[in-house]
Design a protein that fits this description.
The complex is a heterodimer of chains A (255) and B (337). Chain A is of the alpha/beta class and 255 residues long. Chain A is 33% helix and 24% strand. Chain A is built from 9 helices and 10 strands. In chain A, a hairpin with a 2-residue loop joins β1 and β2. Chain B has a two-stranded antiparallel sheet with strand order 1-2. Chain B is an all-alpha fold. Chain B has one domain: ABC transporter involved in vitamin B12 uptake, BtuC, CATH 1.10.3470. In chain B, a hairpin with a 2-residue loop joins β1 and β2. In chain B, α3 runs parallel beside α8 and α9 packs across α11. The longest helix of chain B has 27 residues. Classes of the chains: A alpha/beta (255), B mainly alpha (337).
């Protein structure tokens, strides 16, 4: 895998908040077709790293490369334009809008001709059909694209958020604790969904506290400690206790 | 996420059953207000045989048009989970500016109207600017501009009433007859504004974004919607609606009166929106509901007058009405959350 060019690469990212150093030279590589999990104790810099990669904040030092080319994200919009979509833990959907509207929120499709150009009319049919197709591809079952998201279960709502990310991501999807708000069964369903996103050819960066799930789903696991990469392990080479030991500093780092 | 149940997802255009349709009609957001309207009309027609008179019903519509237009702007603002307390006094300022310019300063009537409307849009823009740039609560900002507009109305007019208005300012007060009922062009204009608002809210991306910003502002921002622009626009549009309402008020009263439109119109516009089923928590509601809500307010005012209830009790009744409607909103919101 390491002979391939990474899709996303971060080198020596530093981010300071006053006297607090949240990122202290963090590195990361994401390769095609993999699920890379990021784990770490609270305050290890996971969230800050993810925010830097998704454009939510700008690192003070270091560089981010996409397919080998230097990238600068001044806002989440920049990252999105570069093909990076992010799924947040707190079910970032608009509950009173229907599923299709949520998938296309901020990227609505207009009708052709003067109806779309002059009157700016939405092409609701096309959006519904596209949303239906994406849901079928990801095997998310819902009764109708026109039901409001608030009528869905938590897992289904997160399914909508993941489907939206998978629909628009051209390079990769970042998922920040996507199962933190979910029950056991729903968590399993979202994990299945994450695998299917990878099967469609999109690499995934997954931040999670849930060790068993991380070991069940990840191809590689990046362990953060004190704002830096402590080690990169795989579920095949390391056990869960070994990973935890690196995470807490009980075992030596293996950068 | 029921992974075995993908069959239905493949057929988005499957024909809804009769039961589906019945449920959809009964739970549609505009049905509750419509039932309330029918009940109110039934009540007043029992109490007064003049109420259902075509002449009286067309009078109700004429009385409704000013509050109805203000309520359009109020709906847009409330859909974003905001509130605009200033729409009534901004309208009062707008009509004083229009009539004073046309009568006292000899400005051409069309220009006078344009300046009056622009003043209202300006107030809306100030509201929107303070809410978005300084992140001040809409309640306090618009309470402030309410008082500023109130003061300016009296300062600009010198507490004088302007009469003898040129015909352009009275156009929307002209009537045409269908059957035995007279309709003003103002009522038609109000309905056109409602049609435009309905189209914008339901058929365009901008409308979706208004709902999304009120529903979950953080999610809206993360999907790339410029939430500040949406918020600014709804307050500016509320200002524009105040300007339109000013024009209608002038046409109806044939006066520029500094005391007009300052007492009941603010609360009535909010009452209309809430009675129309739009949630004060944002993200839920419909413009058609607001139209029905505005008519309910008008029916109450007209009906109570017809059966000889003193004006002061009308305040009492609308006060109770709005609290009832808000309580209902709170209860449904809790059930959903």
């Amino acid at each position: 895998m390491s002979t391939q060019q990474p899709i996303l690469e971060a080198r020596g990212l530093v981010k300071r908040f006053g006297h607090v150093v949240a990122l202290d030279g963090a590195d990361l590589e994401l390769y095609p077709n993999e699920i890379l999990a990021i784990i770490g104790d609270n305050g290890a810099g996971k969230s800050t790293l993810i925010k830097a990669l998704s454009g939510a904040l700008q690192p003070d030092e270091g560089e981010i490369r996409l397919d080998g080319e230097r990238a600068h994200f001044h806002s989440p919009r920049d990252a999105r334009r570069a093909g990076i979509e992010t799924v947040y833990q707190d079910l970032a959907v608009a509950p009173s809008l229907d599923i299709a509207s949520n998938i296309f929120l901020g990227r609505e499709v207009r009708r052709r001709g003067p109806q779309g150009g002059l009157l700016r009319m939405l092409n609701k049919g096309a959006m519904r059909r596209d949303a239906t197709r994406h849901f079928a591809e990801l095997q998310i079952g819902v009764q109708s694209m026109t039901q409001p998201v608030e009528n869905l279960s938590g897992g289904q709502r997160q399914g909508v958020a993941v489907a939206r990310a998978a629909t628009w991501a051209e390079r990769l999807v970042i998922m920040d604790e996507p199962t933190a708000a979910l029950g056991v069964k729903e968590t399993g369903q979202v994990l299945d969904l994450i695998r299917r996103v990878r099967e469609r050819g999109l690499p995934v960066i997954l931040i999670s506290h849930d060790m068993p799930n991380v070991f069940a789903i990840a191809d590689r696991i990046l362990i953060m400690r004190l704002g830096r990469r402590a080690a990169v392990v795989t579920p095949l080479t390391h056990s869960m206790p070994e990973a935890v030991a690196i995470m807490t500093g009980a075992a030596p780092e293996q950068p | 996420m029921n992974t075995t149940d993908t069959a239905t997802a493949d057929r988005p255009d499957r024909r809804p059953s009769v039961l589906d349709l019945t449920l959809r009609v009964l739970t549609a957001p505009t049905v509750g207000p419509l039932i309330a309207l029918v009940l109110a009309m039934a009540f007043f027609s029992l109490k007064s045989d003049r109420f259902l008179d075509a002449q009286n019903l067309s009078l109700v519509l004429q009385q409704v048009m000013v509050v109805g237009v203000l309520a359009i702007g109020q709906t847009l603002v409330i859909l974003t989970a905001g509130i605009d307390l200033s729409v009534g006094t901004v309208m009062a300022l707008g009509q004083v500016v229009m009539t004073k310019l046309a009568v006292d300063n000899g400005v051409s009537p069309v220009l006078a109207i344009a300046v009056g409307i622009l003043v209202c849009v300006g107030f809306g823009a100030v509201n929107g600017g303070l809410v978005t740039l300084l992140r001040l609560p809409a309640f306090i900002v618009t309470l402030g501009t309410l008082n500023i507009a109130f003061a300016l109305t009296h300062i600009v007019s010198g507490d004088l009433t302007f009469s003898g208005l040129p015909s352009e300012l009275l156009f929307f007060g002209r009537t045409f007859t269908i059957g035995h009922a007279n309709f003003t062009y103002g009522v038609v204009f109000m309905l056109v504004l409602y049609a435009i608002a309905w189209f914008g809210l339901t058929q365009t991306a901008g409308g979706r974004h208004i709902y999304a910003v009120g529903d979950n502002p953080e999610a809206a921002r993360l999907t790339g919607i410029n939430t500040n622009r949406v918020l600014f626009s709804v307050y500016a549009l509320a200002g524009l609606m105040s300007g339109m309402a000013a024009l209608l008020l002038v046409a109806r009263t044939e006066l520029g009166d500094p005391n007009a439109g300052q007492t009941t119109e603010n609360l009535d516009s909010i009452t209309a929106v809430v009675l129309g089923g739009t949630s004060l928590f944002g993200g839920r509601g419909s413009i058609i509901g607001t139209l029905i809500g505005a008519v309910i307010v008008g029916v109450f005012r007209n009906g109570l007058t017809l059966i000889g209830v003193e004006v002061i009790y009308q305040y009492l009744v609308t006060g109770i009405l709005v609290i009832l409607a808000v309580s209902l909103d709170q209860l449904t919101h809790r059930r959903l959350a």
